[in-house]
Amino acid sequence: MAQQIPISPEARADDPQGADGTHAVTADLAYRRLAIVNVVFVGAEGAGDRGWVLIDAGIPGTKAAIRSAAEARFGRAARPAAIVLTHGHFDHVGVLEDLAAEWDAPVWAHALERPYLDGSAAYPAPDPSVGGGLMARISPLYPTSPVNVSDRLRILPEDGSVPPLPGWRWIHTPGHTPGHVSLWRNSDGSLIAGDAFVTTAQESAYAVATQAPEIHGPPMYLTVDWPAAADSVRALAALKPERAITGHGRPLGGPDLRRGLDALAQDFERVAVPEKGRYVAQPARAEDGSAYRAP
């Protein structure tokens, strides 16, 4: 079974929860945990209408929580300049259609995620055989069908820029999904990693509940290309981030983050890849079409 890399609790990079339900990470970075997943708010407090960006869009039923946190942080009726997606799994696009329509906001994503966001393709089926706990065992129940925001969808430019986020660039970090991206700000070493790696054992309901800090590979039951996932972690480790916000678990920072991420990168095949699994033996990839199913 895949293993985790424990991290000292002192490596946490977030402040205590504020009145708006968010945790500040820097002056213009905050996140809110929504049951099993995090959403990230990029923008200074009080930024106002179109003065901020939402990263990912939670699980179904969380629209009110995201909207209330945004209004408390940025101002009454403050809409984002855009919604940027790390990828399109159900727990990252749960209320995307509703929020994009309500806010009349463009949605930015990688070209290889387009089929999952324009209604044309479903993700490969989850793999409960990877083990690790309850979250993995019940993964066949997780939705894989696409959402459709085609009228608002924008494809991230090939030069690595993120148009609604000056000073940030996107890095293609496939493996968990074909078009997964992470977001990097070189000026202060801030990384929004999505599910390229996570800081909790997402396969385990107990770990998800307790949120003990650790470095872990991408959630195993939905990762479809393990060699690509390994390359992605190594690319992120090479950045030597000062802090990282992931899709699952608490933000981490400082030397402990970098040591843990280096250890994961160096020994990824042993500590992150499950001993068995559908996609261990046969990755699902965009290149041959196996990563896309009929919806």
TrEMBL record:
Keywords: Hydrolase. Residues 1-20 are annotated as: Disordered. Residues 36-248 form the Metallo-beta-lactamase domain. Its EC number is 3.-.-.-. The keyword Cell cycle does not apply. It is an enzyme of class 3 (hydrolase). Pfam families: Lactamase_B. It comes from the Bacteria. It comes from Methylobacterium symbioticum. InterPro entries: Metallo-B-lactamas (IPR001279), NDM-1-like (IPR050855), RibonucZ/Hydroxyglut_hydro (IPR036866). One of its GO terms (molecular function) is hydrolase activity. This is Putative metallo-hydrolase YflN. The gene is yflN_2. The keyword Endoplasmic reticulum does not apply. PANTHER family: METALLO-BETA-LACTAMASE DOMAIN-CONTAINING, METALLO-BETA-LACTAMASE DOMAIN-CONTAINING PROTEIN.
